[in-house]
Amino acid sequence: MEEDSFLTIKTISEGVYKEKGSKFYAFAYPVSNEEEIKSAIQDLKKQYYDARHHCFAFILGIDKTNYRANDDGEPGNSAGPPILGQIRSKELTDVLVVVVRYFGGTKLGVGGLITAYKAAANDALGNAEIITKYLEKRFRVEFEYPQMNEVMKLVKDFDLKIEDQYFEQDCVMKLIVREKFAKELQLKLEKIAGLRLKIS
Fold first, then answer.
1. What architecture does CATH give domain 5-132?
2. What does pLDDT average to over the chain?
């Protein structure tokens, strides 16, 4: 894979695993920060308030150094790490997997729990559409109508995503560019007379 690209999932997906009456419902989310992670876990805790455990793992960032695994009361390392292992085995990042467990009355033992959490997480990720994403930069450009053609040519040449645009007295566009091409695009935009540029 290219240095500025990474694999993640396109949308939320679900999986399930059942063993000796216990049910393990797995939910995989595409996430980009810890606020989104907290919010997703809180929503699931509200929705499945009567479940015994809400175990999870996540990996964030292209270098995959921001990660966490949580057993939520299950025996140590029997839930969070097996979930994390499934995210890693598919080489994904910017992904959260939560497995909600309903206890069925029969204890599964640590080995059984590891198998169950791993299988549920694997099912949710197996049902997900895996996509390649790129590190991106956001450009905000302001220009006058006569420069429109030059700007639109760059939008086409660099295959830019237009996040937002409004045309009043001046034209304003919010553009998203793959980080790899950001410097080249910046130089070309700066050559357009009268154009004002902000980068984030």
1. 2-Layer Sandwich (3.30)
2. 96
Alpha-carbon distance 156 to 96, whole Å?
34
pLDDT(1) > 80: no
**Residue 72 in 3-state DSSP?**
coil
pLDDT at residue number 169: 84
**Cα distances (angstroms) measured from residue 66 to each of 9, 17, 150:** 17, 27, 41
C-alpha–C-alpha distance, residues 16 and 25, integer Å: 5
Is domain 135-199 in CATH 2.40.50.1020, yes or no? no
Q: State the angle between helix axes of 80-89 and 109-126 in degrees (0 to 180), rounded to the nearest 10.
A: 40
* Residue 105 · residue 10 · CB < 8 Å: no
Query: How much is the pLDDT for 2?
Result: 79
